[in-house]
Amino acid sequence: MKRQYHRLNNSKQFNQRYDYGSVMHYPPEDSSSGIFEIISLMREYQSTMGQRIDISFKDAKILNLVYCNNINIIFILIK
């Protein structure tokens, strides 16, 4: 089975900690087999991986840091 992802050692973090709740995070289990391929060392974050409902606060913050050039933009998440 070919892996869909690989580890990046040279990525910009923008002084932010890893975001398990990012909308860009892969789900923890392989969709075809249902077997967990990504296991968080912190169990409480396992269920937040792979969510596709809203962007996380850190997603919005990093978008602001990359594209808004020190302009504060507020994202309002409507549920």
From TrEMBL:
GO terms for biological process: proteolysis. GO terms for molecular function: metalloendopeptidase activity. It comes from the Eukaryota. Residues 1-69 form the Peptidase M12A domain. This is Peptidase M12A domain-containing protein.
